[in-house]
Amino acid sequence: MMTDNSRLFKFSLPFQMNHHSLRSTTMYASGVLYSLGLWQMIDASIFSKTINASTVHISLLDWVPFICSTFGMIVVNSLDKVQLINGNGGGFDSGLNSIQWQARVVLFVGFSLLALGFSGSILVLILKFVVKGYTEGPTINMGTENVFANLCVLASCTILWIVSTIEEDNSLSL
């Protein structure tokens, strides 16, 4: 039985999630978010080529931000997070051979690709749809689906990053 000194909250939670079920649930949620974003891009492309009545269509330009976001997600989540903390000395003065320095540069590139993808989708929405006056009906939805798809990839990467930094004792290592 728990005493009052060992409780975090004044009330007891109706369910108890252990570390492994929380980790697997959030990893599945991350996968669902990514697949939802991919489906949004596919849906916009199918709509554009089949039943779109306007002159605006989804092209490779619309897919470039999603591809950048996907590459950013792959780069960020394929890094060994231990190398970010426990490098060979670390810092700017330890030379270019430092694993920690290299991991931080690669992490910066990954997050830059994620930011480039999300901001690129907003830029495509503004330049391709809003500026040219395609702000009505289902035409603008193709641009908003692009933004939503990149937002899903960004959220998926963030969730996966946070979950992968949780250690066995439920504390964040970064």
Automatic annotation (TrEMBL):
InterPro entries: UPF0220. It is found in: Membrane. It comes from the Eukaryota. Its main location: membrane. One of its GO terms (cellular component) is membrane. Keywords: Membrane, Transmembrane, Transmembrane helix. The chain crosses the membrane at residues 21-42, 54-76, 105-127, 147-166. It is a multi-pass membrane protein. Pfam families: UPF0220 (PF05255). Belongs to the UPF0220 family. This is Vacuolar protein sorting-associated protein 68.
